[in-house]
Amino acid sequence: MTPEDSQPQTELALAPFRSGSFSVRQAEASADRAAIHALNHRIFVEELGQYRPDGSGQHVDKFDAKNRYFLAENESGLIGMVAVHGEAPFSFADRLPAHATVASLAERPLEVRLLAVTPEHRGGRVA
Questions:
Q1: Are 59 and 45 spatial neighbours (Cβ–Cβ below 8 Å)?
Q2: Which of 3, 10, 25, 121 is spaced 20 to 30 A from 73 at the CA atom?
Q3: Nearest to residue 60, comparing CAs of 26, 76, 94, 83?
Q4: Residue 80: how many CA atoms within 13 Å on its side-chain side?
Q5: How far is CA 40 from each of CA 34, 79, 94, rounded to the nearest angstrom?
Q6: What is the pTM of this model?
Q7: pLDDT digits over 56-96, tens only?
Q8: Of 109, 14, 23, nearest in space to 68 by CA
């Protein structure tokens, strides 16, 4: 076990709020997963080409089980999201210099990942 593995889970919470034409809330554990995975596919597979399509129209992040998702929605559905987690391993850990560890960077690290906003809502308040 590495020092990073022993880091406590960071509690994350967000009260739902409205901002103009959209609302922001924390995703429900399972109810929102299909929409999150579809947005991940649209942005990270189709648009950015970071992953190969598998025909499902869904892309499940490798940290999905520990991610907390915060969603931006309007009357048409999910228009943006961001994933956050505070539990090792972290996606950036293998990019640190050999002498550095995640624990040396912060007492309670929090990784913010997967900022995704639909193209038609970029450049505005959603991001």
A1: yes
A2: 10
A3: 83
A4: 17
A5: 10, 11, 23
A6: 0.80
A7: 999 999 999 999 999 999 999 999 999 999 888 888 877 88
A8: 14
Cβ 21 vs Cβ 74: under 8 Å: yes
- Reading the block at residue 52, the tokens are 């190969």
Token pair listed for 75: 């009357």
- Residue 11: per-residue pLDDT: 61
Say what the pLDDT of residue 28 is.
86
Cα of 19 vs its chain's centroid, Å:
20
User: What are the tokens at 73?
Assistant: 């929605």
Q: Which of 69, 90, 80, 91 is nearest to 43 (CA)?
A: 80
Q: CA-to-CA distance for 3 and 64, rounded, in angstroms?
A: 22
The first and second tokens of residue 42, run together, are 């649209």
